[in-house]
Each structure stands twice: as C-alpha cells, then as structure tokens.
Amino acid sequence: ARMRVAVVGAGISGLTATKCCLDEGLEPTCFEQSQDIGGLWRYTEHIEASRPSLYPSVISNTSKEMSAFSDFPYPEDFPVFLPNARLLDYLRRYAKQFGIREHIKFGTTVVSVRKRPDFAITGQWDVVTEADGKQTSHIFDAVLVCSGNLYEPSLPLHCFPGIEKFQGQYFHSRQYKHPNVFQGKRVLVVGMGNSGVDIAVEASRVAAKVTVSTSRGAWVLSRVFNHGYPWDMVFNTRLMNLIRNSLPGPLSRGLVNYMVNQHFNHENYGLQPEKRYFLPVLNDDLPSYILTGRITIKPGVKEFKENSVVFHNSPEEEPIDIIVFSTGYDVSFPFLEEADVKVENKHASLYKYVFPTHLQRPTLAVLGLIKPLGAIMPVTEMQARWVTRIFKGRRANVSSPVYQNPVQTGHVLSSLCTKRDFFLKTDWLGYMDKLASFIGAKPSVPGLLCRDPWLALTIFFGPCTPYQYRLVGPGCWEGARRAILTQWDRTLKPTRTRVPADSSSPFPSLLTVMGFLLLLAAIVFTF
C-alpha cells in the first residue's frame, strides 16, 4: 500500500508539497479550509478568519526567475516582479500542469492532528477534519504542515503605554486594504517590516502627514538593483555567496553594509539599523518619499496621549489621528499538540527549520516556517523534496539526525516588546545547498567545468536560480540546463519592449571569466 500523507493548506507550500508527494509515489490528501488554492496570494476584499490577508497593491519581493519552482519556469511575458494576481495565475498553472487539484479537499478545516497510540512503531497520525459542520477522522502515515504563519496578528498593546487613552483609530497592518482610510489624516506606522513601509508609502499619497516609528531601523533594498537588475539576481549568486562566507565576519558585514549604502546612505535617512545583522526591507519608493518630506522616520514609541505620540529621545508630542501597527505575526498551529511543535517567543524548535526535534519518528514536518534572504517558493519546494524522501525512507541523510542533532533553530528574543521578526533570516543559498546535498541534488561546479564549462560559469557567476537543483539527483529535469541558459532572456523580455531584445546577459566575456577563475584557483592553491 502507498504511504498516505496529509497536507495542511493549499498555498505555495501545500501545492509543492502535494506535487513532491506525487513525484515520490506517495498518496497525498491536501486539506484547504477555503474554496480555492493560493493561500496568501489569493486576494479577497474581506478579511477571513485564520487566513492571511493581502492588500491589492502587493507585489512579490523576489524576481520571477529566483521565485520559480525548479521545474516550472514563469512564462517569459510575465513581469519580473509579480503583482499578486499574476503570482496566483502562476500557482494555478503549476497546479494544472502537475495535476495537483484532484488531490485537494476544499472547504475542509484540519481540526486536530494527534499521534496514534502505536506512534513509536508506526509513526502514524489521527487527523480530524471538518467540512460543512461535519467532522471526519482519518489515519495518515505522515503529515506535512503547510498552513503558513501570517494570519495570527501580533499586537502587543501592553508594550505601548497610554494606548488605552488614545482617542483616534488604530489597527494591525493585517486589516489594511485601501489607502482612502488615511485621506487627510496624520498617520503613524509602528514597525518597519515590508507591510509597514508599503502602507506608509501608500498612505503618504493621500494623508496629511506620515510618520514611521522604528526602534531598530532597517536596511532598505530596492527591487531595482545595480545597473537596474533585480536585487536577488545580483545578490544571490554563488560567487557573491563565496565572497560573503569566506571573509571574516566584520569584513563580510562591511561588504554588505557598503552594498546597501551604495543606493543611499541609510544614516542620513534615519534608517541605519542598530544591530549588526542584515534584515532588509524591500521598497522602491521609501528613500525618495523621505527626501521629499512625505514620510518622516522616528525612533520607537515611548507613550501615547489622547491625540498624540511621544517618541524615545524626544520630548515633544506629535499629533496623530490614526495608527497602523505593523508588528508582525505570531506562529500558531491550533490543530497540533503543543508537545509536538514547541513554539516559545515566536521560536519553534525544528531541525533545519522543518522537523520537530523530539518526535520518535520523523513523520511530521513543517514547511515554510523560515524567512530566507531570498525567494520562499524554491525553499519550500526543496524542503518538500527532502521531507518526502525521508517519509519514503529513501537515502536522504536521515538515519535520524533529528534525534542525534536536535538543533534549536530560530532565535530566542530577549523581550517580546522588541521583537519584530520571528524566524532566523537564514542564508538562502547555503540553506538550499544544504538540503539539496541531503538528497543528492546539489550541482557540482568543478564537475561541470570539465563537461559543460559554459553552464558551470553561468551557475557560478550568474544568479542561483532554482533550476540548478534539477540538474542532477532525484527528480532531475531535462529542461533545467536550457532554463538556466535562458534565464536572462526571460528577465529582459518583459521590459525590452521598444527595441528587439538580443539574448545578452549581464555577464563578463568568457575571457574575463576564465582569467578570474585562474586567479581564484591560484588564490585557493596558495592558501
């Protein structure tokens, strides 16, 4: 009998998890509480309980070539960064291409997931679902939790003295849909995540005044990076990663510091982060909106008064009418027993961000509970490829590292009032390579240099697009090489609309590349 796997949720992670189950010959059943796929990326005008909420203007922060599932490139005419409707369209095409929909039960909520009495031997789970008010029990061999973490708003009002006296309106960024609510008002946005900055920028077009309060600042990256190329195609390359990881810590931080300050000096804009870690926000408008006085950056909130706010390090009150709390989300798995996935201070104890560290059998996995500095789709797909092979008992580096090496991941935050971002922002490329090496799908650049030098150079110097992880190993895809060599064509096609696009890529000539490689080899051998 085939192994039966329950997949909770039909968003990005749930779709790719279901497909990976099918690839491995498992039998997935995906439970989705709403009536359609897409999760976070399916916009609805009304806010639904326990579902993520999107505002209409949301555009992906990562470019389409870096955000594609590894065996399904985006259509070439799609824009480089995707409005939410185009991203949803891509997910629909993906589901159709791989026949995922027939494995999804819509309008079905997972109520509870409990270990069976003989769990230590079988690793099986009792899963209770509810549809149309009727509950059903199922037995599954394994469970993939793909329910995301952006629906339980974190609004720590106790961290904001005087909020009970405030007479204006306030709400969490999850409630935001349209900027007209800010018309002519004095707006305060608390917190500087992606949503907070997006909302501040949109508000400033109609509001009388917009202030952003941030206790720790943030690096601000623009989607349009060096020479107008997408930020992640420049930032997430094997060469850049090698340089960042080879340098001593302070030098590596200095390099990143230099790169992000090239666009504008963060200190002059009141944004320089206090901490040393790299926690960027993606927004194309913020610097110019600060420069034109539409948005003012202030330190953390000290207290609220009836119609005003007082900031730390500044005595005067600033009058405000409306507050948006962009204070993030809490991690919650209402259907799991607390003992199975421990969440403390927004920190889950998971091996490689996936497997609960203390279960006797590795038959429960959590996908997408990670914030990489890069696209989330290929990451959840790689997690699913690894996990489904473990479920199936294939060689995939788990004799049981889950128990030999219970790594505490995430980071414990000193105080709940200062936290904003719950998961360790991890090194995207390093994490992808690690999981790929577990299943034997990590490309070898030296090996390729002899067989296919042009591909090897493109892989090393070019962006680390997800197709690299389909060149070898289980699930390798014959279209991967072509997808890698044409990645810049698909990037340039939607914007080179006035002059015909030749297939140039922003890469140095072969001669320079070879020279550089020889230099690199010389350095390596000298040391």
TrEMBL record:
Gene Ontology annotations for the cellular component aspect, listed alphabetically: endoplasmic reticulum membrane
EC number: 1.14.13.148, 1.14.13.8
Catalytic activity: trimethylamine + NADPH + O2 = trimethylamine N-oxide + NADP(+) + H2O; hypotaurine + NADPH + O2 + H(+) = taurine + NADP(+) + H2O; N,N-dimethylaniline + NADPH + O2 + H(+) = N,N-dimethylaniline N-oxide + NADP(+) + H2O; hypotaurine + NADH + O2 + H(+) = taurine + NAD(+) + H2O
Annotated compartments: Endoplasmic reticulum membrane
TM stretches of this protein: 507-525
Membrane-topology descriptor: Single-pass membrane protein
Function text: Broad spectrum monooxygenase that catalyzes the oxygenation of a wide variety of nitrogen- and sulfur-containing compounds including xenobiotics. Catalyzes the S-oxygenation of hypotaurine to produce taurine, an organic osmolyte involved in cell volume regulation as well as a variety of cytoprotective and developmental processes.
Domain of life (superkingdom): Eukaryota
PANTHER family: DIMETHYLANILINE MONOOXYGENASE
Major site of localization recorded for this protein: endoplasmic reticulum
UniProt name for this protein: Flavin-containing monooxygenase 1
CC cofactor: FAD
Lineage: Eukaryota, Metazoa, Chordata, Craniata, Vertebrata
GO MF term (any one): trimethylamine monooxygenase activity
